[in-house]
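Hey there, shall we discuss this one?
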Amino acid sequence: MNYFIKELCQILQLKQPVVMATVLSHQGSTPRGAGSRMLVLPGGEIIGTIGGGKVEAEVMHTASELFDSEISQIRYFDLRTRPDLDDLDVICGGQMTILIEYIHATAQNFDIFQELQTALKQGRKSLMIASLEQTSSRVRLGKRCLIQPRGKISDTCPYPEIDLQRLVEELGETQIPVVLSAGKQEYLVESYTESETVLIFGAGHVAKQLAAISKMVGFTTVVLDDRKEFANPERFPGADQILVLDTFEDSLQGLSIDTNSYIVILTRGHRHDQTVLSQALKTNAVYIGMIGSRKKRDTIYRNLLDGGFTPKDIDRVHSPIGLDIQAETPEEIGVSIAAELILERAKK
């Protein structure tokens, strides 16, 4: 999500209007779930996807009309009763409600999304709230207000404090955009949390492939190695951060690791893998994976158990790493690891 908001900020900074399509709800089988988003630019370029097929094509067509009318709409798609849809859409057979929103390229809109991006970078969960008024043909969204469960962030928030408190309470732990009522007013309430971060220890062939894929599928990607000739922007052009370590002995020192962190251990040797793993097990990372054969893994596990770690600690480790797709090449192994990361993120 950080990547998506970053793209939106860059578009608004260029003073370009944009249409944002957000799946508000879905029932049954649909191409994408609630919370999926897509940006449509004036020339028809898209960023993100709400599932492809005829539904996405219709949303893009609606978006092109909104650039002229400068209004927003909420559209309902029933994939069960649409003979004009292609086979894939018909197979899905669910229902989707999609907000198709025209976002003006104003300083106010840029500032609020920039503020959201800053909050996410700092690891602050945030709620974005805007009043919403619906008629049969259009939707009007009021000023967006960025708040935290503990209080307001935005300097000027036009909505009653009692409404904001009620919306926060009603939202609870819901992570998808929803339309809620407070008093006589409807509001669009969107929950944003910091994006998951993949920390890749080792900058070899597999790491190079994994970093490209993990960035592509929405993870903040950090690469760490003690070799400058490997850990550099030329090898990892898409990485969010590249850290050249003095040694793997204290490789996690100074890093912010929490339940949104995924640690992938791909160093060049048995000793380094064990060193990083012993540090990783002392964190609350949601995922810890280590590459290597079962023989290598079992040797490292025995050493860690002898060093005071418990079987419960060892059970946290995904090793051999990645989903079992019979991967052999660095590219295939990168895909298998990325797939496991996606699976763990979905479970979370």
About this structure: The chain is about 35% helix and 25% strand. Residues 330-347 form the longest helix (18 residues). The longest strand covers residues 18-27.
